[in-house]
Structures are given as structure tokens and as C-alpha cells.
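Hi team, as promised in this morning's meeting, here are the two structures we talked about. I've kept the exact order from the run log so nobody has to guess. The first one is mostly here for context; it's the second one we should focus on when we meet again. Sequence first, then the predicted C-alpha cells.
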Amino acid sequence: MKKLLSLAAATFLLSLPAFAAPGDPDPGKPPAARERTSALTRYDTNKDGVVDRTEWATAQETRFKLLDTNHDGKLSKDELFVGTGAPPSDRQIRSQATYFRLLDTDKDGTVSKAEFMAQAERNFARCDSDKDGRISTAECRQALRRKPVEPVSTGR
């Protein structure tokens, strides 16, 4: 199960370029129509080559607002997994369901902004391997290649 959750989280991190971010030239266009740039590059608002926690949090808040199409302050599965118009594969559906369960920590059937931001913080922490509060594209790619650290079982 943990392996599947890790796969779902990695899939989500890899999908970051598909979402609109601050500075997107046309967030209304589908991802394929926008210029393919790294999400981290787009999140780097001061153009210093890295994304700090403030830039990351601002970008994630913007993503949440864009995804929350009915403006109710929470995300349904449909809102969270906005597609390209093509029906998702069975594997994508399973991965999305697993990831949605991971995000929906209070199990109310929606993802609140707090739940969304908590996962965004975990994603940032995973990418920030040197723990300097800044992430680069290379650092994040390397983090995605590593297995996530799993809690040690005490056997109790």
C-alpha cells in the first residue's frame, strides 16, 4: 500500500507542469497548448533559479484556487483531476483514487485547502534534499528517483 501511495505521490509531482502557475501566459489553455516549462521554473517568480518556500506556497495556493472551479473552498475528485478531454486509463483512475485518499486525510470525500497545502509542503520537503528551504529542478528530479522514507516499525 505504501508503495502505491508513493507511486501516486510521484505521479502527482511529475504532473506539476500540467497545472497553471503564477505567470502562466494563458492558464485557460490546455497544458499541451501552453509552452512546456517546468513547474518549478514557472514558480520561480524572482527568477533566481530556485523556488523557495514562499514561492512554492504562493504557487500552490494559486493552483488550489484554479482547481476549485465552484469556489467552495474544497476540491472534489473531478476538480482535482482536471483532464485533457481524453478519458483516463484504468491505471490512471486507480492512481487518482489512491492519491485522492492520501490527500483527503479527514475522509470527508473532498480535499480542503489545508489538506492540499499539507501535501504541497510534504512535496516541497521531499524535494528539498539539502534542507536549505529552496528547491531546484535538478534537486526535485533527484528526489523523485529516491524511495520515500518509510516510518520505522517498532513491532508493538
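And here is the second protein, the one for discussion:
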Amino acid sequence: MKNQYLSLRTLVMLVWALFVLTLTTQTDRVPVVHLMIALIGRTELGATIGHAALFGLLTAIAYAALRLPRRNALLLAMGLALALGTATEFYQQVVAGRTASLADLLANWLGVFVVAFGVVYWQGLFCRKLCSRSRL
């Protein structure tokens, strides 16, 4: 049962990574890209929120899928998401109809770091509660 759960988490991570790659490297002629742009709008704020959400969720999903100690899993998940976010922005320079921008790159990174902060904060709260119970 545990191996099936691990496989499902890995599959979810790979599907989400493929979804992120599709949204960030394809033109809006691809139906799913067109749909997402229509949902969030063509504003700078919409693009920023979209990029941050995509890469933040990628970080969270990768963190959950990795079977490593928590700290190592978080660092690896962050590294993967940061690398993918950076690579897709550079790749957009050669895709017709797409433009690479520093704002999008920073939004990608923002999503990664917000999720990482949330994970560390949540772990701190959990540890504080657990540690205070063990002292009683």
C-alpha cells in the first residue's frame, strides 16, 4: 500500500511538472494555455499570480513526493522548481508568441520561496507543539 501511495505522489508530481512546462513554454494557441490565460486574465497581476502559483504548487508537490528527510526534500524541491522556473523563462526567448521577462522569473521564484517559508513555518509550529508535549 505504501509503494502505491509513493507511486501516486510521484505521478502527481510528474503530471504537475508537465502541466507547468506546457503553460510556461507553449503559445496561447494551445487550448490549455489559452484557457488558463482566459481564467487569470492578461494583466501583469494575473501573470504574476499565475507564475507564483504554478511554481509554488510545484515546490509543494515535489516536497510531498520526495522520500527524503524533510530538510533535504525541501531543498531538492526548491532546487527543482527554481531550476525549472529559470529554464522556462530562458526557453521562452525562442518560442514564437512568448516573451521572457524578469518579472515572470521573479514571480516563479516568489512562489517557490513563499511555499518553502510556509513549510518551514508549519514544521516549526508542529515541532513546538510536539516538543512542549514531551516536556510535560
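Starting points for discussion:
The mean pLDDT is 87.
Residues 2-135 form one domain.
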